[in-house]
Design a protein that fits this description.
By secondary structure, the protein is mostly helical. About 70% of the residues lie in helices and about 0% in strands.
């Protein structure tokens, strides 16, 4: 079955970017929590839409996304306190993000022509990786309170809120390592190591794959360029690319 995801991945990337841009203004409860849940809902909807080119992907993502969405909105009006339910909720989110990212990544890696939608898909997967580890960091803190420490919390505050973990996840993924939030427990340190390794290798492998796709396209068009070009013309184009 031919993949038809044109334009869908750009919508997903826009919703993810909205989360990263707006999350500093959505701390606290009430309307802020509802607005945050709405953004996560938009990400879920566009994620399902992005992988709906095959019925199997559509039904699997709906099977995971709908229960997660229902629990998320219930949490807006009646915050979940049970630790087991919280961990289960986080686990469902992780599996959903992981599955969607895997489907999109497979589509990106199979592409022989690099379009803007393919680039949006590649960036979207990177953001999904950050969100995946963001949830895992929050889960570790839920199971092992005090697993992360920071010297930037106001006096009297003894825990890191979810915006702090979102920030920490992407800082770790990009291997920036500002040091304002530090994993203290062994489980947290192990997770941080894995995330930084994944972040480095994802970028390296993705760049290599995109370069290979461009090389395949040139070969399909005729050696190093479109058919009909002379050897001198092809050499000129190659020299320009090298420069």
């Amino acid at each position: 079955m031919k993949l038809t995801v044109k334009g869908k991945l750009s919508y997903l990337l826009v919703s993810q970017t909205g989360l990263l841009l707006l999350y500093p203004y959505l701390e606290g409860g009430g309307y802020a929590t509802a607005a945050l849940t709405f953004i996560f809902t938009a990400i879920m909807v566009f994620a399902v839409y992005a992988v709906s080119f095959k019925p199997i992907h559509l039904w699997i993502t709906l099977g995971m996304g709908v229960p997660w969405l229902v629990i998320s909105w219930i949490d807006v009006f009646a915050p979940i306190q049970n630790k087991l339910l919280l961990v289960s909720w986080y686990g469902l989110m992780c599996v959903f993000y992981c599955y969607v990212a895997a489907v999109i990544l497979a589509h990106v890696l199979r592409a022989k022509v690099i379009t803007m939608d393919i680039i949006c898909g590649a960036v979207s997967v990177y953001i999904f990786i950050g969100l995946f580890f963001f949830i895992l960091h929050g889960t570790v803190e839920t199971i092992y309170p005090g697993a992360y420490i920071t010297g930037t919390l106001p006096s009297g505050t003894d825990h890191i809120t979810w915006p702090g973990f979102l920030y920490f996840s992407f800082v770790t993924l990009a291997t920036l390592g500002y040091g304002d939030i530090v994993p203290l427990a062994s489980q947290a340190r192990s997770l941080a190591i894995i995330e930084s390794v994944v972040g480095v290798f994802y970028v390296a492998i993705l760049i290599a794959r995109l370069v290979a796709a461009q090389d395949w396209r040139m070969r399909d068009e005729g050696t190093d360029g479109p058919r009909g070009w002379s050897g001198d013309k092809r050499a000129e184009i190659v020299d320009r690319k090298v420069d």
